[in-house]
TrEMBL record, chains A, B:
The gene is rnz. The keyword Metal-binding applies. NCBIfam families: PRK00055.1-3, RNase_Z. It comes from the Bacteria. This is Ribonuclease Z. Its EC number is 3.1.26.11.
Amino acid sequence: MQIEFLGTGAGSPSKQRNVTSIALKLLEERNAIWLFDVGEATQHQILRTTIRPRKIEKIFITHLHGDHIFGLPGLLSSRSFQGGNEPLTIYGPRGIEDFVKVSLRVSETKLSYPLKFVELTDGGVIFKDKTFTVSCEKLDHKIECFGYRIVEHDHPGELKVEKLKEMNIPSGPVYGQLKAGKTVTLEDGTILDGHDFIGMPQKGRIVAILGDTRKNGNSIKLAHNADVLVHESTFAKGEGRMARNYYHSTSAQAAQIAKTANVGRLLLTHISARYTGRAAYELAYQVRDVFSATRVVNDLDVIDVPFKG
Amino acid sequence: MQIEFLGTGAGSPSKQRNVTSIALKLLEERNAIWLFDVGEATQHQILRTTIRPRKIEKIFITHLHGDHIFGLPGLLSSRSFQGGNEPLTIYGPRGIEDFVKVSLRVSETKLSYPLKFVELTDGGVIFKDKTFTVSCEKLDHKIECFGYRIVEHDHPGELKVEKLKEMNIPSGPVYGQLKAGKTVTLEDGTILDGHDFIGMPQKGRIVAILGDTRKNGNSIKLAHNADVLVHESTFAKGEGRMARNYYHSTSAQAAQIAKTANVGRLLLTHISARYTGRAAYELAYQVRDVFSATRVVNDLDVIDVPFKG
Ligand SMILES: [Zn+2]
Ligand SMILES: [Zn+2]
């Protein structure tokens, strides 16, 4: 599991940062990429990575401001042009379907794959399968905006096949029963407890990716115990009033959320063009007394999210 | 007058060429920029030029395929964000207004300037003022598509002020009468013929910028005697059948149009990603026996369009 930042700027593209898009790379976990927001020229940024558009399985839109969605029609078209056939689902606030459908209609674009929309109206679980659960909550932005919490299910412990083989227990239905944690009596009377043959379960990872927002309670809920929190930092530590007026956050507010939510790491993005070079990194340094595992990300940064321990 | 190519590729962006947009720079002529098509990331390309979005006065869209319009909402938003106040007019096929308005509505974008649409239904003059006339004609593409002919009005000759001053004729109403070509009798009885005091008139320049198209008669009409013809060349000389099937042109067909229309120069654009490096330049070399003043343009090429003679 990796997070690749395709665009880390706020509002308009600059030479240093493109507008927002974040790729959650789940290649080992499900041979898929999930995108969070698709600002203009996201497909251009993808040309600079190893991401193949056909692998994009789901797209989660936080809100409908242009710098978060104007790259969507082009990306969808190119995914089709490059022969993507697998279905794609787009989650986002009401209006996202209208925007995409009008764009595809006027341009007479016929996609080579089924496109599904899930328009969000409230918080809660929006996707769940064998390996992942995704939930969303409303944030506090000028326009309806959601944050996402991506929870990987715990990996059950592996069956200790080597140990069973050393004991000359041949593979067969017994292995399955032991893996399920059952107690089994063999033909020779030996009693085996499944728990003795199962390794440690591995905690699934949790990533929270929030949209543009003022500091608010739902951010804590989404980020609770997350390995990684991706949070906007449109403003610097001392600019709380500006942040409030423009419905955004300061780096200090993001750090407070990270601390309260007890996350592993805080990644600051949605960086204003007012902060370039050293000034951008300052956004993180300023708040390390509040939450030390904080860093500002740049376009094309790839952040690994390893298993704990 | 200069033509700056912001995107010269076909269909999807590549690392070498962005999708279509062409800037006609009329800074000396009217302190304005006119854009022809706005593919995705046109505003990103503009960041690499000296063009200021607030100077964009008119946008002409040839057709609504995604690679020609998906950059429009982002460009309009950034022009506003950067404080553009001057009105902007968009000309294009039916549907362009719907696309732009839905994009601005769902993203809750309020522009800082008046935006006007002129949807085209047929060929003819679509704009005329003191200095320029623009007309359009339908082309032959899979979707409704227009080409544009931009005609600069002839510059009348300048009044030879120095010559009048040498003759000790004081400035006043007489100067205006002479400039208008009239014959004037001075108080001392001297008779002056205005034509003796007016310099050579300067022919206005003509540029034809066509959208995606098969070879067709309207292209000749639009390009007739133009100083510069900008024509697509999605396919190479020998691929006439492919070009026909995909509603595009070969470089040879573009050259034939240029020759028949008696243009000054032919600029080939809308180059497929199948042609990179030398292979792209071959598109022009192949057809120099038909029309010698042919060249393939690249992203960010600036072509000067000087007065004749
Ligand atoms: Zn926003
Ligand atoms: Zn086209």
